[in-house]
Specification:
The protein has 269 residues and is of the alpha+beta class. Helix content is 34%, strand content 20%. It has a seven-stranded mixed beta sheet. A two-stranded antiparallel ribbon has the order 6-7. The longest helix has 19 residues.
Length: 269
């Protein structure tokens, strides 16, 4: 904490973050999807709560705020690598892992801001065991409802709805590798490797281990896609606190990534 305080001349506050959000392009009534790193902002009076309140104040209830609230631990243990578990553990883990519940299943490796956001009054969360989203604002129910278990970041996901809503992406102190919307592009290209996934879900009141289809994603390409995207489209780059941040049209980003991936695959496949 001492180091983060020494790195700034004046404390970051809810009001100063609102000013920074406006400077990067956030306006009242917008729909934005936020990917964030609290630590990159520097010391904030009120921490993640102040950041969320600033976002809500900047967008207002006439807009919408969406955040990925993924829970990657609710997955098949045969896929685990950090760390892997013994093969003889796989079936007992599948048999006993608690089912996903949007109210109490925590996020995993998403950071403090989305973990706190999902618990805020007025925020609702989609019912997907691995790649859920949380939303606040006037259209939150429309954005969140009917999130498909299979192909969870594709055409029957909140991302596809945001694509049609003139949504903007805010990368708050994180890079393009965190830009979830690029996944939508992966569903819209000819090359898609289908894989089998598994998670515990609730069907009524009954816990069930459910297997489903998904595509193999390629996040390792996202940073390169983002760099080339900035050469071709308008991306607002500014600091929010100490965090270098980016703000751009989700639709433009998805369309560009779709073309980029098609060209990439034509050269490599």
């Amino acid at each position: 904490m001492k180091k983060t305080i020494e790195s700034i001349d004046f404390p970051n506050t809810k009001d100063s973050i609102i000013d920074d959000l406006k400077q990067i392009g956030v306006k009242e009534g917008m729909t934005i999807i936020v990917h964030s790193s609290l630590s990159s902002i520097g010391w904030v009076n009120g921490g993640e709560v102040a950041v969320i309140q600033a976002l809500m104040k900047a967008v207002t209830e006439e807009g919408n705020i969406v955040m990925p609230t993924q829970s990657a631990l609710l997955s098949d243990p045969s896929e685990w690598e950090m760390p892997p578990v013994p093969k003889e553990w796989w079936q007992p883990i599948r048999d006993t892992m608690p089912a996903f519940h949007p109210a109490y299943t925590p996020t995993f490796a998403m950071g403090k801001i989305p973990e706190t956001f999902r618990n805020f009054p007025g925020v609702i969360r989609s019912n997907h065991p691995e790649v859920s989203f949380a939303a606040w604002g006037k259209d939150n129910e429309t954005i969140i409802k009917e999130h498909s278990l299979e192909f969870g970041l594709g055409e029957r996901s909140p991302l596809a709805k945001l694509y049609n809503m003139d949504c903007f992406v805010l990368l708050l102190g994180v890079g393009y590798e965190n830009n979830t919307s690029f996944h939508l592009s992966e569903y819209r290209i000819p090359y898609r490797k289908i894989v089998s996934k598994g998670s515990p879900i609730l069907i009524g009141d009954e816990r069930v281990w459910k297997t489903y289809q998904e595509i193999e994603t390629r996040e390792e390409l996202f940073e390169e896609i983002g760099r080339e995207f900035e050469d071709n489209y308008e991306v607002s780059i500014n600091k929010i606190g100490l965090a270098e941040s980016r703000f751009f049209s989700l639709k433009h980003g998805v369309d560009f990534a779709e073309k980029w991936l098609e060209e990439y695959d034509s050269k490599h496949n």
